[in-house]
Amino acid sequence: MPKKVAIIGAGPGGLTAAMLLSSRGYDVQVFEKQPYVGGRNSAIELGDYTFDLGPTFLMMNFILEEVFELAGQNITDWLDIRRIEPMYRLSYGDGKELYPTGDRAQMIDELERVFPGSSKGYERYLDYEAKKFDHVVPCLRIPYGSPRHLLRKTLVKAAPWVDVHRSLFDHLGRYFKDDDLKMAFTFQAKYLGMSPWECPGLFSIISYLENAMGIYHPIGGLHQISHAMAKVIDKLGGTIHLDTPIDHVVVRNGTAVGVKLADGDEVSADHVVVNADFGHAVTHLFPPGVIRKWTPETLRKKGFSCSTFMLYMGVDRTYPDIPHHSIIFSPDYKGNVDEISHSLKLSERPSVYVQNASVTDPKLAPEGHSTIYVLVPVANNRSGIDWEAEKERYRDKVLDIIETRGGYTDLRKHIVTETMITPTQFETDKFVHEGAVFNLAHNMSQMLLWRPHNEFEEVANCYLVGGGTHPGSGLPTIYESARISTGLILHKDARGVVGSI
Q: CATH homologous superfamily for 4-41+62-76+220-301+443-492?
């Protein structure tokens, strides 16, 4: 008889784990409380307009290719993935704009156009960060379940390259003098929900990944990845149960033995994989008294990422001259980041990300129309901001920025349909702890061994996947978390390790 695995949540981590385990002959049952797959990597449909709910950048495409290959699939049979060029437009408070590209020669020309004399620093950046990537990334592809794992040769060799003694912003000072140029290589800290002035220098590898390996978009939207994985799971014999919330993980003598559904049915399992938001899971999905380390009191002492204020607008015109991705920096970027991270104020001069995906993807809107996706980093719900009172005013403020500084002329006049999601809604409707959409913060005291373990330290035969476990948030690292956890299950069952290195 095949061993049984119950997976809580059909987000990208749960789907990846289900795909890999189904391919190895496990009886996989995925339980998803929503009527759709994908979690925060799902879609929002407003009439004829389709948006990604969450992630819009696909980096490290090779990891996605690898997990499909490990499941015996060719990714090109399931997804049409295109490289985005230029990668994005960066708009500064003084009006200058930079269009970074993955083409090294073109990027040098672009840097010299906007920041004369900076190209030599860029070339040093690429050369150093390539070596750093080779040393650091293998450390993010193995589990850390005990202190002895910190003594692995892989991590010891990488130690001189980790750059934990300086912030990401300071680290970029090794290459560039101009603060605006440093911002072009540090704003990526927002993918982790952190400030570039506090995010460890380790994470300079994120901007390197963009510059060296590119940014991608699957035609139809990034949520198509989730749909493709769901189809592969079905092909391999796994089952996804939608509209099927879990009441709790069934734990006996400290061991997970299955899940109890909200309707009262109990499903037995040899292994349980938890893909729910970590903070929500440990405070809602285990019986009283089971969780002793990651209690509500413990979570209150931990650092959590920022949240986001979201707008999704279907408009009856196109913006062919505006790139797929744009970042409009606050005129006081550091002040804006401090308000998000420290004073927890609602910034009156926010930075704004805008996706104009229809310039690349014709499947998202009717011909001659566009989907405009807007993300504004804001404080998480520890701020106490009354979003019900603030949301309409803040919407208007954000639209003012987009129309005046973003090039989206008269956008308001062309809105056919729209919706918004506030941090409060992320917590109440999407079950995101404190609305912290990028999960636990990624400071070094909450990484590697000090992040919730892939093989959950509190309950035997229970495994974590997603942004709340190692290696962290972001689609590529979430896929990695699933590969690591799947490998641990296979190792325990003496079936080998998925994608071991």
A: FAD/NAD(P)-binding domain (3.50.50.60)
